[in-house]
Each structure stands twice: as C-alpha cells, then as structure tokens.
Amino acid sequence: MTNLFDLTGKVAVVTGANTGIGQAIALALAQAGADLACVGRTPAEDTVGRAQQLGRRAEVLSADLSTIEPVQRVIDETLEKLGRLDILVNNAGIIRRADAVDFTEADWDAVIDTNLKSVFFLCQAAGRHMIGQGAGKIINIASMLTFQGGIRVPSYTASKSGVGGITKLLANEWAAKGVQVNAIAPGYIATNNTTALQADEVRNKAIMDRIPAGRWGDPGDLGGAAVFLASAASDYVTGHILAVDGGWLAR
Fold it and tell me: Residue 69 to residues 121, 126, 192, 221: CA-CA distances in angstroms?
C-alpha cells in the first residue's frame, strides 16, 4: 500500500510555498519523495532548504501571482530546472476583510485576481503539459467558504466558491486525459491569514465552539490529504473537494 503514496521521481509546483499551508504541503510532498518548485512572492528559501535536507531537489521560483504575467514562466522554469511536471498545488492566496457595504473595488479585484484568475491560468498552463504527457495531478486550495458564505470577506468567498467550480469543470474536461483535478478545503487553520480571527476573542470563541475537534487546525494537518491527492492512491478521484476541517462542516 505504501507504494500508492510514493511520489519518488515526481516534480511538484507549490505556490505560496514560503509559509503556512503552502510550506506544510510542500514539505509533506517532499517527505513522500517529490522534488519541488517552490513559488512565492517572497522567496521560499526556508522551504527549499528543508526539502533539500530530506534529499530532494528543490528550487525557488519567485513570482507575484497577483497577475497572470508570470504563470507560463513558472511552468517553463520548472521544466527547465527540474525536468518534468507532475503535480500542481495552487495554494497562493490573499484575503481582505470589510463589511459588504463598505467593500472596495480595489479589494475585490486584488483577491479575485490572485485567488481565482491566477489559479485558473496556472491550471491551464500546467494542464496543457500534463495532458500532453497523459498524466498529472492538480490540487487547488479551496476553503470552508467554498461551501458557506462567511461574513466580511465578499471577494474571498466569491474566489473560493469559484475555485470549487473550476476544480469540477477541469475535472470534467481532463479526467479522460489522465489528469485528476481536485481541491482541499481547509477548515480554520492557524496561519498568518487567520491571525486577526484568532486574536478576536468573540470570533475565536464562536469558531472554537463549532469545531468538533476542539482546536484550530495546524498547517501540517493538510499534508496527508495533499499526498493522497498527488499520488496514485487517488487515480480514480477527480472533481472532489476534500474538507480537512476538524468536523466543522458536520456541524
């Protein structure tokens, strides 16, 4: 059974790999045997160093995914430096918080461009290569707000709902071509993006009261799900959004 989860010889592109969820997923893939292209606006030197300590090849690819300008370069540099592309993890994302009645166009566009537009076009660029080789795994990072509305994050909710939609669309188009497209929907994970919620006593208590596991998630909690969706163990799984949420949706 362990061979089903073995990623030896595979190459994974992970966006937003410098910290938090992206770093945890990248290192889980490296532990399973994958070599890494670590993409980030801030160079992911720490992630690369830790992957190399595991005996993996790993490269820093600097890219600001607030626009789609670097998308094709990310794929081209991965192929040039690491020789292949088997896995794409679309993790990079941002969030803006304000009441809906006060939300600005600038905050709307910034979040949609990073969280949805760049995600689609990275899928497209990687998908062209994967379809050509007849195999590939794409993992998009969705959210609890792929399923729910949330409050004070209108563009984030729209973007993550969109991520769920394009995950299913691409799965429909590419499954017969050997490419599985799935998503992970993290629950409330303790990262930089959720610092404000953790610090808000009222919101933090409301969140904790609803999580059956009784705790915020750790970025490392997502590693096993990512390895599963990146490996041969999930070859007949596509168009699925896997919630890793401590039971949040069960409530």
Answer: 10, 15, 26, 32
Q: Does residue 47 contact residue 109 with C-beta atoms inside 8 Å?
A: no
Nearest to 16 by CA among 193, 245, 199, 234: 193
> How would you class 56 by CB atoms within 10 Å of its CB: exposed for 0-12, middle for 13-18, buried for 19 or more?
buried
Tell me the one-letter amino acid at 125.
A
Sign of CA dihedral 8, 85, 177, 70: positive
* Residue in this structure with the two tokens 């669309």, named with its chain if needed: 169
Sign of CA dihedral 53, 231, 242, 185: positive
Q: What is the DSSP string of 213-237?
A: TSS-B-GGGGHHHHHHHHSGGGTT-
Edge-first strand order for the sheet with 179-186 is 58-62, 35-40, 11-15, 87-90, 136-141, 179-186, 241-244
> Structure tokens of 159?
């973007």
125 has pLDDT over 80: yes
> Of 60, 74, 174, 59, which Cα lies nearest the Cα of 121?
74
Q: For residues 244 and 154, is the Cβ–Cβ distance under 8 A?
A: no
For the segment 126-138, what is each residue's pLDDT rounded down to a tens digit? 999 999 999 999 9
Q: Which two tokens stand for residue 11?
A: 């190459």
pTM of the model: 0.97
Report the catalytic residues: 156
Report residue 132 as tokens.
Answer: 């050509």
The C-alpha atoms of residue 69 and residue 118 are separated, in whole angstroms, by 9
> Which domains does the chain show, CATH number per domain?
2-191+219-243 (3.40.50.720)
Dist CA 103 CA 32 (whole Å): 42
